[in-house]
Amino acid sequence: MKSQKLRFTGADGAQLAARLELPIDGRPLAFAIFAHCFTCTKNLNAVGNISRALSREGIAVLRFDFTGLGESEGDFADTNFSSNVADLLAAAAFLEADYQAPQILIGHSLGGAAVLQAAGQLASVKAVATIGAPSDPAHVKHLLRCSLESIEERGIADVEIAGRSFTLKKQFLDDLEDTRMRESIRNLGAALLVLHAPLDETVGIDNAGEIFTAAKHPKSFISLDRADHLLSAQRDSLYAGSVIASWSASYIDAPISVPERGAKDNLVVTRTGSSSYTTEIRANGHSLIADEPASVGGRDLGPTPYEFLSAALGACTSMTLRMYADRKQWPLEAVEVSLRHEKVHANDCADCESKDVKVDVITREIELIGDLDAAQRQRLLEIADRCPVHRTLHAEVVVRTSLKE
What we know:
Helices cover 32% and strands 25% of the residues. The chain is of the alpha/beta class. The strands form four sheets. It has an eight-stranded mixed beta sheet, with helices on both faces. It has a three-stranded antiparallel beta sheet with strand order 11-12-13, with no helix packed on it. Strands 7-8 form a two-stranded antiparallel ribbon.
């Protein structure tokens, strides 16, 4: 994932801090905006994980801090739910002017309510996903119950939320009361995905039911069974992101025509960040992940590079046999190839010329399924050694490396 730090002008003129997460090949299929939860920021772990999950599938994500929060300018005390919606519209205008109009809106908690309110005002939006969202923004008042009386009497009060102090004015409460969500949900004009955790103690699961009932089709619901409200566990936020990415693919307007590519159009881009060995891969628009086992410092989120090497040989082997059998019109129903890579001392390798080093050995076992006679099976075994990747592994390979300017 390529991450760019950006700033754009919010609804009231404040400069809002943002990050634009792009697919590592720099060719997004569509753009999305992520609205964070009440008093949270764009840097919440769950927000980052969901954004990364979408960018791996080719969807660029703009996540930003609402006015007065995180790294954005402005006074939080002067903001309210309506100003958050206005900031969302400003973010959409920024994307449309500098990149591409957003087709997807994603909102967490109160940010979910905000995207439901904003979607009807954005013609470009095709899909909306909410995570742990309240069906009524006034639901937030339960977080302020210890300060409500003071706010009502004095018109302003300092409140503590999640261990941090914020200043709220009475206009914030009045704005929550004045917002009516049911009509906005009914007139959404976009596909809706509602994600909610049954054990959410901050925003009850009944809110998800009310949003889902109010919405028109197409609409879908996903239960985040083990998650908490903030999706604190990495598995939950990564799962939510992968679900949103897969679901939204049915609704976005991806490039209408993809040029037919030949054998030489084989661009592969990889990116490894600073926090782990987890590596994103884009191979001509196809997303993969490589990683290392946890025992050596990885997170085991994907195959290792050597497992990808074995996979390349296995795939090439079975494809080559499939092509040969089709050309000969032999009754080959399927090919299964099992491979294992290891490094062994050359002394243990009868086929190795040098005996004083370790060598790479790939053990390949081929299962041919179909009504083949012995001669056909033997010929296919011989053809396996002629697959292009097999030949590459046995040939002299030149890797030309340079630093990108």
